[in-house]
Amino acid sequence: MMYSLVFYVPETHAEAVKSAVFAAGAGQVGDYEQVCWQVKGEGQFRPTEQAQPFIGQPGVLEKVPEYRIEMVVLAEYKAAVVSALKQSHPYEEVAYHLIQVEC
C-alpha cells in the first residue's frame, strides 16, 4: 500500500522539513529517493485568540509564501513520516493530508 503525502510549509523551512520526512522514509520511488513535487504559492490564515502562531498575531489575517510539497510514502513508513513532519514543521497546526494511491 502506498500513500501520497501533501503538506504546506513556509518557504523558510521547506528544505528542513523535506529532509526530515525523507529521512523517515518518504519519497522513495523504485531506484530513486528524495522524490517530490513542489510548487510555491501563498498560504493564508488568521490565528484565533487561543493560538500561539509561529508567524503572525492572533486575530490578524496573515499571508505567507509557502510551498505545497507532494511525495509518496509506503505504508510501512507512514507513522514515522507523519511524526517527522509534525516534529520538524514550525507551525502549531500542520496542514497535511495522506491519500491512499494505487501503483
CATH class: Alpha Beta
Category by helix and strand content: alpha+beta
- Architecture in CATH? 2-Layer Sandwich
Strand order of the largest sheet: 2-3-1-4
Number of strands: 4
The biggest sheet amounts to:
4 strands, antiparallel
SSE ordering: EHEEHE
| Fraction in beta strands | 35-45%
**Gyration radius from CA atoms, angstroms:** 14 Å
- Uncertain regions: pLDDT < 50 for 5+ in a row? none
Helix share bin: 10-25%
How many structural domains can be distinguished in the coordinates? 1
Overall 3D geometry?
elongated
Number of helices: 2
What gap, in angstroms, lies between the N and C termini?
9 Å
> Which whole number gives the mean pLDDT?
96
Protein name: NGG1p interacting factor NIF3
InterPro entries: DUF34/NIF3_sf (IPR036069), N-reg_PII/ATP_PRibTrfase_C (IPR015867)
Describe this structure in words.
The structure is a single chain. By secondary structure, this protein is of the alpha+beta class. It has a single domain (2-101), classed as Alpha-Beta Plaits. The protein is 20% helix and 36% strand. Strands 2-3-1-4 form a four-stranded antiparallel β-sheet. α1 (14-23) packs antiparallel against α2 (78-88). It starts with a strand and ends with a strand. The model has no long low-confidence stretch (mean pLDDT 96).
Question: Can I get a quick summary?
Answer:
20% of the residues lie in helices and 36% in strands. By secondary structure, the chain is an alpha+beta fold.
SSE blueprint:
Blueprint: E1 2-10, H1 14-23, E2 37-45, E3 62-74, H2 78-88, E4 96-101
Antiparallel strand pairs: 1-3, 1-4, 2-3
Helix pairs in contact: 1-2
